Amino acid sequence: MALDTLNQDEVTYFDLNNELNIPKNGTIQIDKDHEALEAFLKENVIPNTLKFESLKDRFDYLLKNEFVAATMLEQYDFNFIEKMYHFLREANFKFKSFMAAYKFYAQYALKTNDQRFYVENYIDRVAMNALFYANGNESLAMNLANEMIHQRYQPATPSFLNAGKARRGELVSCFVLQTTDDMNSIGRVINSALQLSKMGGGVGINLSNLREAGSTIKGITNAASGVVPVMKLLEDSFSYSNQMGQRQGAGVVYLSVFHPDIMQFLATKKENADEKIRVKTLSLGLTVPDKFYELIKQDAMMYLFSPYDVEREYGKPFNYIDLSAEYDNLVDNPNIKKTMIKARDLENEISKLQQESGYPYIINLDVVNRANPIAGKVISSNLCSEILQVQTPSIINNKQEYEQMGSDISCNLGSTNIVNMMETDDFAESVDTMIRALSFVSDNSHLDVVPSVQNGNQELHAVGLGAMGLAAYFAKNKMYYGDEEAIDFTNMYFMMLNYYSLLASNQIAKERQKSFYDFEKSDYANGTYFDKYLQSDVQPKTQKVRMLFKKHHIPTHSDWQRLKDQIQEFGLYNAYRLAIAPTGSISYVNDSTASLHPIINKIEERQEKKIGKIYYPAPYLQNDTIPYYESAYDLDMRKVIDVYSTAQQHIDQGMALTLFMRSTLPEGLYEWKKDRTNKMTTRDLNILRMYAYHKDIKSVYYIRTYTDDENEMGVNECESCSI
After folding, report:
1. Structure pTM?
2. Could you give the CA distance from residue 51 to residue 57 in angstroms, rounded to a whole number?
3. N or C: which end of the chain has fewer CB within 10 A?
4. CA–CA gap between residue 381 and residue 674 (Å, rounded)
């Protein structure tokens, strides 16, 4: 029975999987999921997978039919490939859930051109990734095979999906652009959005430099149209450039809270917005300096400043002004046009919109830049709010050429699987292998369609190694999400990830005798980055976490001192190394919980297009772990913020932190609700955003709301940037 003729009535695995959702004798029928997995492999995978006499025959077929890149295979002796396959088979990999196998074969496994048969299994896809990223280095290829077959490392979806293919898409997940206040730049950004969306990536674009609606152009008052029409143009661009109909193009636009168009910007996402201004598919984000929180606390009026006037007075685009430091000077400058609104009115407007739509994302810009160790300023983020890197503006002439080449951002992402990573025999080698794989993606991304992105990538070699499965690890080891032991573990894990990723990047710089651009101006070069590790010895605080890390070498004070010396001498290859991206479908393949978040349901229900509902049990869900799996919608979000804040101390970029709220909040969850309505209000979101800010959270991604009629709002998952 070929894939295109598959009749659901003739298979049993969907029914078996659905029995997961039907308790028996008051318990979850976990065994039914295992039965569904076995039935899926027997009824679907085995009969519909192409068979070959030998591994050599298989690769001859792949080459003949242009499935695999010949240039990749030419780097290896075939005896080595056979050796790798022997190692991979000896690992005895098995999917742990029906959803894991179903997602892999539906979304990742290579199929014949007519989509009727599978051409590869999980081992084959791992082999292609290992051979591709190792670039002919047999030792690295074996290390990569080892990390991926044991699911310690997971490349981002576009990288994992396309590695090794002759007819492949791009490896990069997403991009960050900016526009300056002129028509040439706007036109160039729209063209760039078209090109990058066509490649399959989500695009983040900062519009804060654009003059506001009603501003003057060449002496004519009220001539400027502001940011909203540009948003409409960008939304149309993403809709048009939709990866050949396979997936909707995706973009997010960011605006400063001190931009005069801020209220119109937010109004574009309101449910009752006029169609002339409404944006349906474009995501919204705000860049928020410290000064905004200060004005909220004072219950003060706030001034919004004309970007055109600010750039004229300061000689640089609005994005690059330190608004917190310059706020009073901007207010006092009579040459800068300004308008006034009440800070708390804007704060409430943000919360209202987050209740309605989940937007806008929040980038706490001064928190980001205080922690940024690289020379320059971070001004924006990507479609999932975790990429936070310095940018410089470009100057475009009338021929749409670069008179001054700026730098923009491409995102090269991958993730550790925390549960499996804690089982590694060598934490240092595992992380080194991952950083090398990610650096290969950066080195081999051909992005000349947007020269500023290519320039930024070539200058910084930035990557984003993240993590998934934190909630699963907590439950497996009987820790409650957000408790003392959980916080202690989070602190240690991400300190380790930071240390060993620095060690790996330093080793690559030493081997290549090359550091990222302007390394000598960074806090790594002057040594101040390491103060937080040298002024206190980061070690486990609880007995349980000491035992969990027993097999691993935890960096000591002297290790950090030695690393500091090596980095000051030899540099770092990657300007950025760590970022916690959302994990989408690939977390199911990894039998993992998503990112660092708590679970939503012990048995998750997914609607799979034409198939119907598929159920996914939380990893390691057993009678003794059930109490440790609490729904995110029933948790105090301050616990989630605390976990993310703990990890953030060690992560040089950001994290896609989502807040989960109920329309009707559980009784007693938040002390400020006492004697007030139990309905979620704007005040609740205001308090939580302020709490996140004071905990040095760099970004807040979606607000997801579980309504009283059991629907989720604000759940438009970003496929482009998720791992």
Report:
1. 0.95
2. 10
3. N
4. 37
The secondary structure of the chain in percent helix, strand, coil, rounded to multiples of 5, reads: 45, 15, 40
Q: What angle do CA 573, 577, 579 make, to 5 degrees?
A: 165
Cβ atoms of 282 and 251 within 8 Å: the answer is yes
CATH code matching the domain that covers 174-288+347-403, chosen among 3.90.79.10, 3.40.50.300, 3.20.70.20, 1.10.405.10: 3.20.70.20
DSSP 8-state assignment for residue 195: H
Residue 1, pLDDT score: 38
CA gap 488, 258 in Å, rounded: 38
Residue 272's pLDDT is 76
Q: Which three-class secondary structure state does DSSP give residue 259?
A: coil
Peptide bond into 360 cis (omega under 30): yes
Exposed/middle/buried for 414, CB within 10 Å: 0-12, 13-18, 19+?
Answer: buried
List the structure tokens of 655.
């994290």
Q: How far apart are CA 28 and CA 359, in angstroms?
A: 35
Closest C-alpha among 129, 236, 582 to residue 382: 582
Q: Answer whether 123's CB lies under 8 Å from 88's CB.
A: yes
Q: What string of DSSP letters covers 379-413?
A: ----TTS----B-B--EE-TTS-EEE--B-EEE-E
Whose tokens are 């242009």? That residue is 66
Q: What is the pLDDT of residue 9?
A: 61
Spell out the alpha helix ranges (H) of 30-149: 30-40, 55-64, 70-73, 78-90, 98-103, 122-134, 138-149
Give the pLDDT confidence score for residue 23 in this predicted structure.
81
C-beta contacts of 225-231 below 8 A and 24+ residues apart: 226/260, 226/261, 226/264, 227/253, 227/255, 227/259, 227/261, 227/264, 227/265, 228/261, 228/264, 228/265, 228/268, 228/277, 230/179, 230/186, 231/207, 231/265, 231/268, 231/279, 231/282
Could you give the CA distance from residue 443 to residue 701 in angstroms, rounded to a whole number? Answer: 29
Please answer whether residues 71 and 136 qualify as being in contact, where contact means their C-beta atoms are separated by less than 8 angstroms. Answer: no
Contacts of 213 (CB under 8 A, 6+ apart): 224, 225, 226, 227, 228, 260, 261, 264
Enumerate the H helices of 207-342 as residue ranges.
227-240, 262-267, 290-297, 307-314, 323-332
pLDDT at 25: 80
- What pLDDT, on the 0 to 100 scale, is given for residue 722? 52
Quote the pLDDT of residue 64: 95
> Class of the 151-171+412-598+635-651 domain?
alpha beta
Report whether 621 contacts 30 (CB < 8 A). Answer: yes
Residues of the chain with pLDDT under 70: 1-9, 200, 222-223, 242-249, 609-610, 710, 713-723
List of E strands, 132-289: 153-155, 174-178, 202-206, 251-256, 283-288
Tell me the domain boundaries of the chain.
151-171+412-598+635-651, 174-288+347-403
CA distance 397 to 613: 53
**What is the predicted pLDDT for the residue at 27?**
81
d(CA 259, CA 263): 9
Cα distances (Å, whole numbers) of residue 362 to 287, 305, 383, 456 = 6, 20, 12, 24
CB 23 within 8 A of CB 29: yes
Give Cβ neighbours of residue 273 (< 8 Å, ≥ 6 apart): 267
Query: Same CATH topology for 151-171+412-598+635-651 and 174-288+347-403?
Result: yes
CB-CB contact of 265 with 349 (8 Å): no
What positions carry a catalytic annotation? 382, 384, 386
